[in-house]
Amino acid sequence: KFHSSGARYATKNPYSVLGVGENASASEIKKAYYSLAKKYHPDTNKDAKAKDQFSDAQSAYELLSDPKKKEIWDQYGAAAFDQGAGFHPGAGSAGGPFGSAASAGGQQGFGGGFGGGFGADINFEDIFGAFTGGGRRNRGPRQSPFHEETLIGQDIEVQTNISFMDAAKGISKDVFITPLVQCKTCSGRGLKKGQSRSSCQKCGGTGTRMHFLQAGFQMASTCETCGGQGVVIPRGGECSTCNGNGVVRERKTVNVDIPGGVEDGMRLRVSGEGDAAATGSTANANPHSTPGDLYVHIRVAPDTKFARSGANVLYTASIPLTTAVLGGEVTIPTLTSDVKLKVSTGTGTGDKVTLSGMGMPKLGGRRSAFGDLRVEFRVMMPKYLTANQRTILEMLADELGDKSAKRIMNVGSSGTSPGPTDSSSQASSSSAEHPKHEGFLKSAWQRLTQQHDHLCTQKPSPPPAAGNKEEVEEPKKATGSN
């Protein structure tokens, strides 16, 4: 036969655990418990003893928040709750102050010791929601010591599309939603005029129902009739407009100010534009409530000219081959207007220029803070060349000493060498027909445009003999190679 240890299962004084006097009011007891629960909750307090202190506070509050258990403690003390103490006030008579329920389940009077479960009427999501993220939402119509807290409606999420330029400059846009709003017929009470809620007969107004199991165990569950509220609306007493919920759906237009600099996928919060809380199902006749929030997801359409990297805007400027080689000036667009941009001599594809402060506005920073506009050059190479263009490029390749370039026009090759007997006459003819000190490219350009053809008409040569034909033509070829 096993005996429980009295020291192990000794019930602590709940007043001492919560730090209140025996004459403390219910609100003082609740306030003291709330403070201890937040202080010693295992999720926020990693001290090894915090778990035990938290459990003690649970058990103490469970006892003192129940009027019947509190009365028993005040009258009999810890002897009525200690396991194995041998004290059962109702054992001698079924009509004792505890009744048969105390005899069957008296050993669980203080939560079955400090290891027992917490009372069914406590909602920890309400208590610790401030730092766990779940307490702001009205999780359901459970009756709890914190039932007086503000009821908050559900959030609404929508999506809106804007252009790239709208994202850069900011825009005010209307979004259409159908939130839950307070019923105007019943003012959120969920009742017809003149009707009132009555106590639930199934649970006796407690909101929970007790189920007795074998070996003296008992289990509490939420009353399915009143949903844990302890009160019900009389049949036929519901508001016909909202069916007793206190809220109805209504189409609404909300104007949203989208700031400049938003990125694709960002979410904006519009406070108080979500669903209203369903106040028609609460036990409190005049509950305090506030609507949820509206969250707007921003989708930014891509732009044909610009791209972005954070607050920086990217632009690719295509420039001709001649501008890239010789340098020059090009016009490029920005988010506000077109600007002139100088191109350095010898600019190649991939070279970049940064224009400071001409990008997107920076969110969360100073109002005058902007990103940069980064311009990347791309040299446009011609795919097809005319005869003159190819000739000039081949001559340029000769001038630069590029031996790997392909030649088709062969403008740099000289013809048949002049004979030795006509060398003096050839030199004098070349000097007479062409200006002095001409460069190679200038001379080649004059050859292409035939600017010196008039010189040939001014000084015609006598008709050569048949045998001297080659001697007359050779000086003309030598002129182009100088």
Strand % is 15-25%
Based on secondary structure, the structural category is: alpha+beta
Give unreliable regions as ranges: 1-9, 84-147, 414-437, 455-460, 465-482
Average pLDDT number: 74
Helical stretch tally:
14
CA distance, first residue to last residue? 128 Å
Strand arrangement within the widest β-sheet reads 14-15-19-18
Query: Roughly how many Å is the radius of gyration?
Result: 47 Å
Largest sheet descriptor: 4 strands, mixed
Shape: elongated
DSSP strand tally: 19
Binned, the helix content reads 25-40%
Explain briefly what this protein structure is:
By secondary structure, the protein is α+β, with helices and mostly antiparallel strands.
